[in-house]
């Protein structure tokens, strides 16, 4: 229970901090809006030429786009700020401040930062999903909604684990400012259902950088394409990645000597 | 003229070593930049196959060729980010640069030539890999290949000049990111970067003629793909020249006016 209280405390401080810069909310909202606008223009260019993409209709692809933006928002809101801070702390030796606190170090470095205004991506993404679901005129049952929520949650856990492992490379290589940009580049593939990519890419996007589970799977849940085994596979994958991230973090910490050591 | 050549060569050599320092990071960065066109490529190949082989005159092999050449042209297009002027002007690092006996534009451009040399070299394995993976349909004639080689260099110089001029807006505007985002946003759609220009809705195609974007991006790609007549190629080079002159004029005016303001802030 103390985990949630810790997160709540950090969140409160973060929010109080960011509420000072209320204008940033509107800047971020404009950014999210532009991103979705660009995506919609792209979709309409494609759908001027064809009626579906690999069996996915236009509203269904909008759902994929919405999930992509939403999950992207969660990453920018809760995951990316913490990872950037870890890299910075390792470079400058200020990670000590996190390590000397009386709580698990991985927990602290994972929840202490939030960029609350990035929630605009989450809101806009959710808006796009809702709009697309209405356009589809499909009835989303209880089970589908639950599958969607679980898929999102598991996907977020997997993304977090992969980011933590990527960030931990900073303990060895130190100058890894590019690493997070690399993820951004690869994340763009999630804009489309992962099934369209050639085999090799699909495998990489499922097992290496689990974008398939983070974006395509939730979208499949909402468009009636999901089978229960995929969800179970997602759960297994999430558990495996969390364990792997924990191990990598613990091993990486041993390499850290700090500012004064 | 020889003075310029000498400075360019000296700057080239100096920056070359600096640019070669983080080779691995650079290579990784180039690899991630290759992800974007692969996504477009895959999507459009599917559309082409679904529509019976081709879309607007582009077959699956054509799309592969388009987006692979795209990676090369994208490299060549990279210019000095206009955000660089934010640091130079607001932090005052511009001041020592003004003491050099040559216009900063030349020093920046010369430095970028060496950056191009490095990225071109690192692009080769990426280009080969993509070709093997996606089997493009590419058969340029001799003059098309030669014209392409020239077009990407002249296109780069044109874009570099225009974006450098854009950066000078920082002398006057504080929230320049708003202006830059609009510029690059328009460029993404109207240059041939997102999709070949012929696939854009008609109104967007017409709009793109008013902007310089396609002349450094879509134009060289279409040239190498053999989609342009000699007349269209010459028009393309002409357009590059016109926009280059516009950029140069903008720099001449904005630089002089901007420096007056810069001095006034007590730097």
Helical fraction of chain B equals over 70%
Radius of gyration over C-alpha positions of chain A, nearest whole angstrom: 19 Å
Provide mean pLDDT of chain B, rounded.
Answer: 89
DSSP summary: helix tally of chain B:
12
Strand line-up of the largest beta sheet of chain B: 1-2
Count of individual beta strands of chain A: 0
Question: What does this 3D model show about the protein?
Answer:
- The complex is a heterodimer of chains A (261) and B (267).
- Chain A has 261 residues and is mainly alpha-helical.
- Chain A has one domain (2-254).
- Chain A has 12 helices and no strands.
- Chain A has helices spanning 2-18, 23-47, 58-92, 96-99, 105-111, 119-136, 142-168, 170-173, 177-187, 199-208, 211-222, 228-254.
- In chain A, helix 2 (23-47) packs parallel to helix 6 (119-136).
- Chain A is globular.
- Chain A starts with a helix and ends in a 7-residue tail after the last helix.
- With 267 residues, chain B is an all-alpha fold.
- Chain B has one domain.
- Helices cover 75% and strands 1% of the residues of chain B.
- Chain B has helices spanning 2-19, 23-50, 60-77, 84-90, 94-98, 104-134, 142-167, 176-190, 202-208, 213-216, 218-224, 230-264; strands spanning 54-55, 58-59.
- Chain B has a two-stranded antiparallel sheet with strand order 1-2.
- In chain B, helix 2 packs antiparallel against helix 3 (60-77) and helix 3 runs antiparallel to helix 6 (104-134).
- Chain A binds chain B through residues 34, 38, 41-42, 44-46, 48-50, 52-54, 175, 178, 181-182, 184-186, 188-189, 191-192, 196-198, 201, and chain B through 22, 25, 28-29, 31-33, 35-36, 38-39, 42-44, 46-47, 50-51, 55-56, 133, 181, 185, 188-189, 194-195, 199-201.
């Amino acid at each position: 229970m103390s985990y949630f209280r810790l997160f709540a405390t950090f969140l409160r401080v973060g929010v109080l901090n960011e509420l000072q810069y209320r204008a940033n909310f509107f800047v971020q909202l404009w950014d999210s809006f532009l991103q979705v606008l660009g995506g919609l223009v792209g979709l309409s260019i494609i759908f001027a030429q064809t009626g579906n993409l690999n069996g996915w209709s236009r509203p269904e692809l909008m759902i994929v786009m919405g999930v992509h933006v939403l999950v992207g928002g969660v990453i920018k809101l809760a995951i990316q700020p913490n990872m950037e801070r870890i890299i910075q702390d390792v470079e400058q030796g200020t990670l000590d401040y996190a390590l000397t606190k009386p709580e698990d170090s991985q927990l602290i470095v994972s929840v202490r930062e939030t960029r609350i205004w990035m929630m605009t991506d989450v809101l806009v993404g959710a808006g796009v999903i809702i709009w697309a679901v209405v356009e589809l005129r499909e009835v989303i049952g209880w089970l589908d909604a639950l599958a969607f929520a679980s898929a999102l949650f598991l996907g977020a856990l997997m993304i977090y684990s992969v980011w933590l492992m990527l960030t931990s490379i900073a303990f060895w290589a130190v100058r890894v400012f590019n690493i997070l940009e690399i993820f951004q580049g690869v994340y763009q593939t999630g804009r489309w259902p992962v099934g369209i990519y050639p085999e090799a890419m699909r495998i990489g996007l499922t097992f290496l950088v689990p974008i398939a589970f983070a974006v395509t799977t939730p979208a499949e849940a909402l468009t009636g394409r999901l089978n229960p085994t995929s969800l179970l596979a997602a759960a297994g994958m999430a558990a495996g990645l969390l364990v792997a991230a924990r191990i990598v973090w613990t091993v990486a910490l041993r390499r850290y000597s700090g500012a004064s050591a | 003229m020889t003075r310029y050549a000498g400075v360019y060569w000296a700057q080239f050599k100096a920056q070359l070593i600096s640019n070669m320092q983080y080779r691995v990071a650079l290579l990784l960065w180039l690899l991630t930049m290759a992800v974007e066109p692969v996504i477009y490529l895959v999507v459009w190949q599917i559309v082409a196959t679904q529509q019976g082989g081709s879309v607007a005159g582009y077959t699956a092999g054509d799309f592969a060729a388009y987006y692979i050449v795209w990676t090369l042209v994208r490299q060549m297009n990279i210019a000095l980010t206009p955000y660089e002027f934010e640091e130079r002007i607001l932090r005052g690092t511009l001041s020592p640069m003004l003491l050099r006996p040559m216009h900063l534009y030349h020093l920046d451009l010369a430095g970028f030539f060496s950056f191009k040399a490095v990225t071109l070299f690192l692009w080769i394995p990426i280009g080969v890999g993509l070709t093997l993976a996606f089997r493009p349909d590419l058969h340029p004639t001799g003059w098309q290949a030669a014209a392409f080689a020239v077009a990407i260099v002249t296109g780069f110089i044109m874009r570099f000049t225009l974006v450098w001029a854009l950066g000078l807006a920082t002398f006057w505007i504080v929230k320049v990111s708003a202006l830059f985002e609009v510029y690059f946003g328009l460029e993404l759609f109207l240059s041939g970067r997102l999709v070949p220009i012929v696939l854009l809705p008609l109104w967007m195609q017409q709009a793109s003629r008013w902007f310089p974007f396609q002349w450094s991006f879509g134009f060289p790609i279409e040239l190498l793909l053999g989609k342009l007549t000699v007349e269209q190629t010459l028009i393309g080079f002409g357009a590059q020249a016109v926009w280059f002159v516009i950029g140069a004029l903008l720099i001449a005016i904005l630089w002089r006016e901007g420096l007056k303001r810069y001095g006034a802030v007590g730097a």
